Structures
1.
Amino acid sequence: WMKNFPEDETQQAVLEGLRAHSANVTLDKVGKAIQIEYEGGNYGQGRHDGSVRISDEDVRIYDSRYPGKHLLSHDDLPSSPDDLKWCLQSSNWDYGWDEEEG
């Protein structure tokens, strides 16, 4: 599924979907995830820096203002950058907490 997310198009989806100032895409082929770090994004709670993580299980938004907490999408997993942009603009998100490590 990761091949369906070209770096440039995925970056653009986050820039547009969260109205971010900048975004940097990292592919984690071992962990089978795509991480997009962004600055100046907004999902409706004010401008902030954070990251979007796409895996074969879910899509999460991490807001740097709330360590250990994330937003979890309840929409279908995106299959393209256009789907990701739509997902980021959706209101179908709930808060989740990261499991304690160690």
2.
Amino acid sequence: ALKKAMALEPASEAASTAEWLNHLGNAIEAPQLGRPWYRSTFVLLILAFAVLFVLVHLLLLARALSKVHASDPALLLLPVKAFGGAAAVGLFAVSIHKLSGGGGAS
């Protein structure tokens, strides 16, 4: 259908613009022939490299964190405490805002 639409030019005497657009629309809406993306060897190769990349970096992260934990076990809890403190401050600010009547329509 696409070859037929490309063969017909809108300016030709044999076809009107409407007929040309109709053929072009049919070509666009025609089902695609081909296999799914996950059957492509190239796509699977890229996915395999991505998975390998993530696994290697997870192993490196685990190794680094185990060394940090071995040197000072309490050190790994500092980010948890910091985010917990930030969440508590945020909750306090939101509650003050709501109690002062600035909460809008609820």
3.
Amino acid sequence: AGAPAPAAVPAADLTGLRDALADYTPRYWIYTAGFVACSWAIALAVDDLGKVMAVVGATGSTAVSYILPGAIYCKLHPSPHLLRSAAMVMLGVGVVIVP
């Protein structure tokens, strides 16, 4: 009584992958290739990663601190009132000071 024969490994079913990739438009692939190319060009051009991190931090913190809270408040409270006006000012300041 020997060990049972191992089951055959089924071939990879790529129909799901093909269907998923078919959902993306040519515009998606062009934008994706553009982002990758720009990221690659920046990576080759910049010697100091600290400079890149400074720009990313400055723009990201401004968006998180000023732009997003103002925009979200205005979206959630569409009727005009004092706090919505303050949120609009905060949103405007964030857009102006973003580097």
